Amino acid sequence: MTFKGVLFDFSGTLFRIESAGSWLRAVLDESGVAVPPDEVRRYAMMLAVAGALPGGSAPERIPPELAEVWATRDESADRHRAAYTGLARQVELPAPGLYDALYERHMTPAAWRPYADAAEVLGTLRRAGVGIGVVSNIGWDLRPVFRAYGLDALVDTYVLSYEHGVQKPDARLFRLACEELGQDPHDVLMVGDDRRADGGATELGCSVHFVDHLPVEERPSGLRPVIALAGAGPLT
């Protein structure tokens, strides 16, 4: 089947967040807080277990006081910040200002890397005349990340949960993305790494293709099948 539009998830699909260790070390260096390397590794592991890094490991446990804000974290910028800084505060870090600094760090382009085949796949789809959208559950504006890596010119529309007050798998986000591409959902493919959230697109009639949420080094060509699925070229 040939698709006229392809929607992509952001985190774990087109881009991957840095490791918890890299995230923490960057913030400690910028903040001027001296922590021995062994302690940095220990703090990073505890933050990862807590699920404090957006786009990183899922929390092993949601504290009861954060359950409600966690469930709706992607519906607004304030809720997203509250959920993730709340999880980070489950770990006693050496300086109180680090919690907000960690949250700010994850919103910077430096904290993200595109998958190796992201530019190739987006570029091939664009040259084939396929409309491209990004549909993300997120609490901040990811457009600067795309611009920093030269991918913004390959995206026709962004539909971000916090800008609309709803989060995937709510079909309204996918419907809006299809409308902005000017395409019927049956002519659109959704590509993501979360079977529940991204699978919500099937409610509208979109086809869905899943990729594995892996580190960049472990998934060098996971997006390439999308080219063939969209009818934009042979499977490589």
How would you sum up this structure, described in words?
This protein has 236 residues and is α/β, with parallel strands linked by helices. The chain has two domains: 130 residues, Rossmann fold; 94 residues, no CATH class. It is 37% helix and 12% strand. The protein has a five-stranded parallel sheet with strand order 5-4-1-6-7, sandwiched between helices. Helix 7 links the parallel strand 4 and strand 5. The longest helix has 14 residues. It is globular and about 55 Å long. The model has no long low-confidence stretch (mean pLDDT 96).
Topology, number of strands:
7
Shape: globular
Average pLDDT confidence is 96
How many domains? The number is 2
InterPro entries: HAD-like_sf, HAD-SF_hydro_IA, HAD_sf
GO molecular function, one term: hydrolase activity
Protein name: HAD family hydrolase
Pfam family, one: Hydrolase
